[in-house]
Amino acid sequence: MCGATKCRVAQDEPGCDLTPSELDGLTRLTVLVANTELARAPRSLLLRFLLYTKCDVDKALHRLKEVLEKRMALGIGKTFEDDSDDVDAFLTGRSVAAPCGYWNFAGRDVTGRQIVWLRQKVATVAPSQEIAVTGVRAAHRFFYAATAELDTMRRGITLVLDMTDVGVSQLLAACGGGQRKIMTAVGDVYTHVMPVRPQAIIVVGCSAQLRPVFWLSARAVLPSKLKSRVTFMRDHQELATLLPRSSWPAALLPEGKASAPPFEQTDKHARARIVAFEEACSSIPAMTTSDAVSEDPNKRPIGVG
Prior knowledge:
This protein is α/β, with parallel strands linked by helices. 44% of the residues lie in helices and 12% in strands.
């Protein structure tokens, strides 16, 4: 078997090794998708799902098929690439449907996990299915960038949802009627099958009065197993007792003291992270199919003699 492979994904991130079992799993998964619709999927995506499922090759394949089917149902199944002008506009706040706040990834929590920050100054209402789908593509790209580092894929993320300025009526409008159907349809694509593993979810500024409505909306997009990982924080001052300010994004700190660029630069930041990770994945040496099969006959890939 090949030895561990060094995979440095960005200059400001620590290098990580692919273990022999991870390299073996990646080879097996590549063999399994070779003659399917997933054959065009980038190698970096295969690795994401492999690590997301803790090297369970069959489960990774199942999840990959799921995400392809759900993207096809939304009309975006022909490509795994979400780099487009409308997605750029969504990620930088230039789109009318973009979050009235910010999306960013910055810093580490006390355990060393990557922190992902989402702030909604008002509850976002998607005026149409098309715009909601653009939001899904933007979310895919954003979360792929936020987790474009092997240690994060293995350990998961800490998600901060800042709802400081969201009111009850706004949140009800965002999860009621037809809007709820849109949320359920598109939310399912990136919370149930995306290779993202929130290990902790911190909700800031969600008052006791607002929490029942929050849970109403969360049912549309939040898997049941994640609900036990939700912690509520009264405000940013209380949040500082849990996450050091040195890990906060630019939107919450004076210029020059934040660990990530402003929301307006999220798209540029995301693109750089994704490109670096894809380049790192392209440098990972592949085992041959015969190597993968000969090591353990009981793990022989489907379709290999």
